Amino acid sequence: MALHIKKNDMVQIIAGDYKGATGRVLRLMPREKKVIVQGHNLAKKHVKPSQRNPQGGRITVEQPIHISNVLPVNSKTSRATRVKYRIKDDGSKHRICLDGSEISVIRKSK
After folding, report:
1. In a domain, 35, yes or no
2. 3-state DSSP assignment of residue 88
3. How many CB atoms lie within 10 A of CB 92?
4. pTM of the predicted model, to two decimals?
5. What is the DSSP letter of 73?
6. Which of 72, 84, 68 is nearest to 33 (CA)?
7. pLDDT at residue 45 above 70?
8. pLDDT mean over 92-97
9. Range of 52's domain?
């Protein structure tokens, strides 16, 4: 299954508590079909003191969101859009918005 989201994409959350919010994808978890969006779906985590965090206490971490609840943002219109794929004559695969503008190249030509 081709994922319509990649790391560092700007996405808009279309369902849940953060509906309508936009952010950058920090991490993609394809097996669980989840993404972590920067600054959204935050939770407090209690940590013990360690060398990395000598004070210990509570830290804020981003929790995963299901990939079906986010859409990539079109850079031209700054709106969420669905994505289709097009293979050009030279063999390269491109992610295309439904209005025809290109988001990125998935696979370069050989």
Report:
1. yes
2. coil
3. 14
4. 0.80
5. B
6. 68
7. yes
8. 86
9. 10-77
